[in-house]
Amino acid sequence: MTLNLSPGAARTAPPAPAKPPTAGRGRPSPIRIALLTLLFAVMTVPVYLLLVNSFKSQQDIQSSPFALPFARVSLEYLEAAIHSPQYNVLRSYGFTLLLVVAVDVLCILFAGPAAYVIARSLKRRTQILLLFFLAGTFIPSAALIVPLIHVLRAIGLGNTVTGLILHDVAMTLPVSIFLFVGFIRTVPRDIDHAAAIDGAGRLRTYWQVIFPLTRPAVITVLILNSIGIWNDFISPQILLSPGSGTYTVTTAIYAGISQYSTDMTKVFPNLLLAVAPVIIFFVYMQRHIISGLTVGALKG
Hints:
Layout: H1 7-11, H2 30-53, H3 58-63, H4 76-82, H5 89-120, H6 124-135, H7 145-154, H8 161-184, H9 190-197, H10 202-210, H11 215-231, H12 234-239, H13 264-284, H14 286-299
């Protein structure tokens, strides 16, 4: 047996197999594993406490809040929260859903056209207006409650549902306008010119031509606003009169809290009833939430 050691044979030799992209990376570091474990615990422990304590008695909750209700799993506390004589659960769900829909519709009606004007204008004062809207995202909503109460009372909207809707619309507009501006700027201006040649005005151009193209931004705005309004507790608790009988799913939690004691068998079931729709909504819309935020980040 002879070996061909000529230069030509060396040139025709097959190349060495390339290393896979993951070769040499090794296992995750212990610090990363510890941080991920800590983050997982911080996110899941409150949910675990909410689930297990919604089916236990007051004594079991106070003695061992982390224990599973192996001895006696009872639905009576959840049923008592649903049929509470202090407030109507179905009415609170309906009112909160109506609040979410009203704020979402008004926010889309106002934020879209405003963002279209800002995105299509090259004037300096228009860009300053965008910065003015962005400044609203840095102001905590709790810091505006006291002056807002005086303003609503001055215009005759204190302790009214209309005042609460206007407040929520004003608080959701800055982020909504920012997302719409970033997306509309990626739409070619030739579309606007073509619509103008066909005789469409700016308002018609936006609603009939540009608005259908902003579907990812609309979905993102609707999802973020809906979750934020549903979970809001401070605004409806302060802006609505306690004696009006109008509750949201979050303000109904106070039904089990009195001046001298707290009935945990009412607080935990009410909390579960408040967050269950949000969890279901997030699981169902998870793909749209992630894709919508990604589009907004890439096109903004």
